[in-house]
């Protein structure tokens, strides 16, 4: 009979990063524990399985009557990335996304003042966005990040010089190691084209592909998009959104109106701010109905 370990969602823990450091005066002690593949882990009633960095299934551990989960499993539960700081023997779980082999990111040296030591991010460079050239490190039998990018660019019919790269990293999703590549083509004044590709690291197979075209109108970055016969105009869509918010255009800042296609239907996407509150609406061009509405504070 399988034993069940039921975990409640750790809402409080998810609100902040967690760091676990080793005390200088602590002595490393070897223990004997049981790996328990017969234990079933449920989170909010749903059975979960967990994977190591190399995609192998990991199981709960039983020690002196207490059940323990690997740090990667805890990170998966909380939606956080596991970092290991070699110099400080510090494990950190934080939002992003060696000795500790189940870490997502291994940082050889981080001093207590928060500065990275030599080889800070294990050879992965980032331009500050937190999305470029970060994430897991490819193994010898996986394609490189540059190869994954070239596959995506070839699929889109562009070169890297044509586009702005917004995301390029190796990630683990449902036990599959894959590259997540996203970029935007802004060469046409009236339109931006956003590409998103997921490429399997083991063989370079394109497993997901998405293209999103947005036409810039009104307060966008130049260009116009005319309404077809029977459709509302961009100005009318803007007025509908402002009326929904109970505001006048003079009251708001950052007004932006774009058009997008959703399941073959044209929609206006309207965004604006008033103080610390941000509003966004999706409005059907055919009849002016609001299909999505959000109003939230920063």
List the helices and strands and how they pair.
Elements: E1 3-7, H1 11-14, E2 18-21, E3 34-35, E4 39-43, E5 46-48, E6 50-51, E7 57-58, E8 61-63, E9 66-68, H2 71-78, E10 81-85, E11 90-94, E12 105-107, E13 132-135, H3 145-156, E14 164-173, E15 176-188, E16 191-200, E17 206-217, H4 234-245, E18 253-262, E19 265-274, E20 277-284, E21 290-297
Parallel strand pairs: 1-4, 10-12, 13-14
Antiparallel strand pairs: 2-11, 3-8, 4-5, 6-7, 8-9, 10-11, 14-15, 15-16, 16-17, 17-18, 18-19, 19-20, 20-21
What does this molecule look like?
With 298 residues, this protein is mainly beta. It has three domains: 3-107, no CATH class; 132-214, Nuclear Transport Factor 2, Chain: A (Roll), CATH 3.10.450; 218-297, Nuclear Transport Factor 2, Chain: A. Helix content is 12%, strand content 43%. It is built from four helices and 21 strands. It has helices spanning 11-14, 71-78, 145-156, 234-245; strands at residues 3-7, 18-21, 34-35, 39-43, 46-48, 50-51, 57-58, 61-63, 66-68, 81-85, 90-94, 105-107, 132-135, 164-173, 176-188, 191-200, 206-217, 253-262, 265-274, 277-284, 290-297. The strands form five sheets. The protein has a nine-stranded mixed sheet with strand order 13-14-15-16-17-18-19-20-21, covered by helices on one side. Strands 2-11-10-12 form a four-stranded mixed sheet. A three-stranded mixed sheet has the order 1-4-5, with no helix packed on it. 24% of the residues are buried.
């Amino acid at each position: 009979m399988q034993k069940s370990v039921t975990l409640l969602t750790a809402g409080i823990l998810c609100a902040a990063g967690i760091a676990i450091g080793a005390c200088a005066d602590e002595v490393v002690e070897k223990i004997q524990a049981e790996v328990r593949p017969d234990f079933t882990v449920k989170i909010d009633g749903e059975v979960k399985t967990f994977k190591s960095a190399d995609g192998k299934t990991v199981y709960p551990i039983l020690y002196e009557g207490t059940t323990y989960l690997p740090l990667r499993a805890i990170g998966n539960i909380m939606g956080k990335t596991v970092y290991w700081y070699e110099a400080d023997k510090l494990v950190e779980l934080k939002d992003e996304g060696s000795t500790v082999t189940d870490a997502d990111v291994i940082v050889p040296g981080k001093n207590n003042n928060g500065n990275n030591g030599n080889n800070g991010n294990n050879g992965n460079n980032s331009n500050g966005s937190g999305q470029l050239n970060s994430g897991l490190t490819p193994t010898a039998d996986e394609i490189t990040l540059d190869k994954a990018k070239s596959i995506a660019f070839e699929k889109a019919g562009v070169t890297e010089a044509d586009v702005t790269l917004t995301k390029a990293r190796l990630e683990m999703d449902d036990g599959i190691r894959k590259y997540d590549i996203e970029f935007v083509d802004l060469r046409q004044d009236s339109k931006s084209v956003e590409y998103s590709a997921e490429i399997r690291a083991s063989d370079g197979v394109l497993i997901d592909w998405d293209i999103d075209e947005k036409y810039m109108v009104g307060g966008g970055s130049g260009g116009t998009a005319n309404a077809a016969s029977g459709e509302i105009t961009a100005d009318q869509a803007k007025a509908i959104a402002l009326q929904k918010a109970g505001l006048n255009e003079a009251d708001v800042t950052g007004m932006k109106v774009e058009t997008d296609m959703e399941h073959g239907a044209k929609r206006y996407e309207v965004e604006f701010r008033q103080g610390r509150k941000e509003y966004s609406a999706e409005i059907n061009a055919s009849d002016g109905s609001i299909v999505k509405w959000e109003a939230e504070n920063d």
